[in-house]
Amino acid sequence: MVKSYRTVSELAQDADEIVEIKVNVQKTILYQEVPFTVSTVSVLNSFKGDHEKGDTIRIIETGGEYTPLDKQGNALPKTTMNFNGISVLQPNNHEVIFLSTFEGPQISGEVYVPLGVYQGRFKVDASGDLIQQAPDEEKVNDAANMNVERLSDTLHKLLRQ
Questions:
Q1: In which domain of life is the source organism classified (predicted)?
Q2: Which domains are delineated in the chain?
């Protein structure tokens, strides 16, 4: 069961890492016939955690574009799996993301996963405004109309407590 978040404070409290990132490359792996996308990202700014600007980290998400196989092992048409219509990270995406350490059989090494599947993901548009990557009914209440600078100020206040 995935935990649901209603506030930035809840996300910040549970996050191991809070980083502003740009997606470099990604690959999709299959584990028990379920696609998982592993994105390698560059850290542009760090708000919480051990990583800092210039670091590269990996993020795993359930879903993505993949080629399923039929029962005989033949390739079927390429398809995309999303949760509630929200896609996984995409190359060149610029986002602020709340992460927890991933532990699972799908991949080894240091890997992170977004909190709340997609609730911990915020796209950054050209003006620095944050766009929540969640359906309306699951959006983080106090993150509406927020930009990177306001989020940074909010996080500094929350994390000092």
A1: Bacteria
A2: 8-160 (2.40.50)
